[in-house]
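Practice set, problem 2.
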Amino acid sequence: MPGTKDVRELEPKLDVHDPNFKELWERSLVRGIASYLSTYVPDRGELAGPAFIVVGTGKEALKNAHAELVKDRGATRNSNVSANTELTLVFYSYVTGWHLRLKSIEKSPSVVTIKYQFVAPREPAFAATRFALVPIGKLTKGEVKVEVEQLPPVDYAGRAMPPKRDADRFVCGSFSFEVR
C-alpha cells in the first residue's frame, strides 16, 4: 500500500533455489496472513471484523498480528493494553477484485483515523489481500477510538467511481481499546 513499508522486509528474503525454500515459505508469517485473508472471506451480510492493536513494532508486531489474526481467527483481540508500550495497528482486507490504498493515518491522543480508498483496476486483475502494520507508538491512559473510513472509490486514472457498497464485508472496521 502506498506510504507504508513492505512487511516482507521483516522476514528473510526467500530464494526459490534455496533447498529449504518450501520450509521457509511455509513458516513465513507474511504468507500465513496473506493465505488466511485470501482463503476466508466473510459471507454476504457478514462484516470483515475490526482492525486491531498488537504490542510491539516491526517483526514483533508481525508475529503478534499473525497470532491474533491467523492462529486465533480473531477470537482474542487486545481490548486493554498497558501505557508506555509500543503499539502497532493492524489494518487488513480480504480478497476483492479492487485494489486498496491507504490514503492517510491521523493520530491524536484518543483517536486514530485510517482513511482508505478502493481503486478499480485498469483490467481484471488477480485478487489480492492487503494488510498493513501501522506503528502508533506509546499512548497515554484512556480510551482510544480507531476509526476506519472509506473515501470515495476511483478508477486507475483517478476518476470517480460509484461507491463500493459491501466494503465492510472485505475491509476491517473501526474499534476502540483501553490504555491502562
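Problem 2, part (b): a different protein.
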Amino acid sequence: MLSILEKIPALNEEVILEIEPLAPLSMVSDLPGSYYKTLKFPSKKMVSGLFENILEWHIDAKDRKEIIKEVRKIRNRQKLKFPDVSGSTYEPLLIEYFEIKLQMTSSSFQYDDYWCKAFRRADAIVHPKGTFNLSHELIAQKRELLRNEKKPNQVDDKALESFFKKEKDSYPLYYSSPTSREYICFDGHLSFKLLMDSSLYLDLSTKLEYNNISYLGNSEGWVNIKISKL
C-alpha cells in the first residue's frame, strides 16, 4: 500500500470527510511546554495522521525518516518538492495527497485536565520518583535505604539513585509526568470538504468498509469516520 507514495499526487476527487468524536479530543499542533493547548479544528498534519491510522500505517520514527528520504528522491526525479512540515516529531507521509478546502463544526466547549506523559531516564533520579509501581521484591529493600536527613519519611536522593541504577530492570520502563492538557468536546460532528488523490480515496474507502474507528489528536481521542465523494 505504500506504493502510492511513488506516484505524483493528483488531487482529482472532491470528497466529504465526516468525523464523529466518541470522546473529548485534544489536538495539539506545536511542541508544547508545560501546557498542551488544543486546536478547535484538526490541522492538515493531524488529518494526514488520521488517514495513516485508518490505513494501518503504524510506522516508527526511524523507518518513517528512511521512507521520507526515499520519497524526496522520487519527488526530485519528478521535478517536485516534498513539503517540509513543522510541529511535533511526527512526520506525515500522505500530506501531499489531499487539501482541505472547507471545514465545518458544531458548537463546542473546552476544559483542562491532567494527562500523563511517559518518559524514560535510565540514568536519573526523576525516573524512580515518577514511577507509580515497583516490583514487590524491591519494596523491602527500598525501605532499608538511607533516609533523607530533613525528611526521614523519604529515601535519600543519592541512595535512591544508586539503588535505581542497580535495580532498573525491576522498575517500569517509563515513568509518568502529570501535565496540564486542554480538551475540546463537540455537540455534533466535524465535516471537511477535501480535494484528494483518487488512489488515496480508494484505499481509505476500502478500509472504512469494515472498520471506521480511529483516533485524532492523541490515542484517547477516538472518532468514527465517514468519507464519500461529492
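Answer key, part (b): The radius of gyration is 23 Å. The chain has a mean pLDDT of 91.
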